[in-house]
Amino acid sequence: MIQSIARQTIRQNPDPQGFINAFSGRLRTISEVHVLLADRDWSGVQLYEVIGAQFGPDFLTNPRQAVIEGDDIFLPADHALGLGLILHELTTNAGKYGAWTDGQGLVELTWTLIEGGDRGIDMCWKERNGPRVTSPEDVGLGVKLIERSLAKILESQVNLKFDPDGVTARIWLPLPPL
């Protein structure tokens, strides 16, 4: 997985410094989630821990231009790793191009747990009050990771929209039965 991300990152960032910046962020995300999982013998982690790895440890008590709402949910290892990569790309893009670029924008990350036969997490990332958004002409690796990092393993779905008022990502993450 790391070799694949490295190869894809260098294709998108042939400049050495650009590659180092992009790849080190992705590698750090994988490492942070792996540390969380290793501390629990790879049994899984809580959703808030995965979010905290990307938003910072004090994201609940001292949020940085963010509103986070939803119940804490136990995530199996594959779910935590894939969602960590998605959140890394979304937070990185919000800082580079979106809601967090000017100090005025806001990211709302909300979710609900759906129980029953189609048990899963219905999550929404919504940016607002940031700079005007346009759809990228070229789809980069970050967008591909957001849209595909969970889909092949977990049959998840991510619907990413570049609305003029802000980026929105709807994420459906199926969970195993209890």
TrEMBL record:
Enzyme Commission designation: 2.7.13.3
A GO molecular-function descriptor: kinase activity
InterPro entries, per the entry: HATPase_C_sf, Sig_transdc_His_kinase_HWE
Pfam families to which the protein is assigned, alphabetical: HWE_HK
UniProt keyword terms in alphabetical order: ATP-binding, Kinase, Nucleotide-binding, Phosphoprotein, Transferase
Catalytic activity: ATP + protein L-histidine = ADP + protein N-phospho-L-histidine
SMART domains named in the record: HWE_HK
Superkingdom of origin organism: Bacteria
Listed name of the protein: histidine kinase
